[in-house]
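hiii so um. not sure if this is the right channel but i have a protein structure encoded as tokens and i wanna go backwards to a sequence. like what aa goes where. can anyone help
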């Protein structure tokens, strides 16, 4: 079935988010911060691993790289487009809107978490530069 992974991912995010909102009051702030940082590092490694698995290849007994210029130009063009359309501000606005709807308090790291994980859920490894910005 087309889109089954997307549906499963959406359901998992909703369930996980609900559990997080429910348990948030029982989790110390320092643990919340540590978990946010740990998940950011996990996403970083997943992105790097996915990228390197396609870029580093063995050919005739030698390790070679492929697609390096494509990666550089993709990051360059993606960064330029992101800056031109001011995508970070739009995502922050969307995060603030979601925080208000979900009644997350003003002091929470909701918007930071939203900005960190939204690109990963929506676009996968190609948003690794977003994570590097934090």
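sure thing!! here u go:
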């Amino acid at each position: 079935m087309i889109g089954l992974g997307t549906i499963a991912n959406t359901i998992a995010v909703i369930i996980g988010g609900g559990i997080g909102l429910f348990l948030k009051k029982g989790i110390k702030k320092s643990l919340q911060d540590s978990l946010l940082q740990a998940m950011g590092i996990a996403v970083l490694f997943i992105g790097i691993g996915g990228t390197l698995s396609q870029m580093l290849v063995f050919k005739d007994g030698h390790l070679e790289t492929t697609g390096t210029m494509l990666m550089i130009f993709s990051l360059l063009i993606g960064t330029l487009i992101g800056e031109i359309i001011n995508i970070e501000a739009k995502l922050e606005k969307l995060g603030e809107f979601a925080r208000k709807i979900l009644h997350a308090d003003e002091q929470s790291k909701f918007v930071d978490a939203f900005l960190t994980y939204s690109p990963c859920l929506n676009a996968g490894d190609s948003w690794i530069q977003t994570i590097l910005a934090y």
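oh and Residues 9 and 78 are 25 Å apart (CA to CA).
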